[in-house]
Amino acid sequence: MNSRERVRTAFAHQEPDCVPLGEMHVMSPVSSELLGREAITGEGGCTVYTQMAMCREDRRDEFVQRLAEDSLETFRKADMD
Prior knowledge:
It is a single chain. The protein is mostly helical and 81 residues long. Helices cover 58% and strands 0% of the residues. The protein has 4 helices and no strands.
């Protein structure tokens, strides 16, 4: 069973092969360490500071894209569902 199937099965109140594992947020410093590069994830000081800086430079869309991609890459690297 892959991650998507596992989560959907749990949401359908059925029994998956194992309990889905996940987090709502992984903070940027932790993601950066895990990925081996600067990452924009989670919430808090680092992310807010980066968001404000990029928005002031008219790079909001780039920020949103990086936040989504870096978060997904972090979850996959950490083997979360």
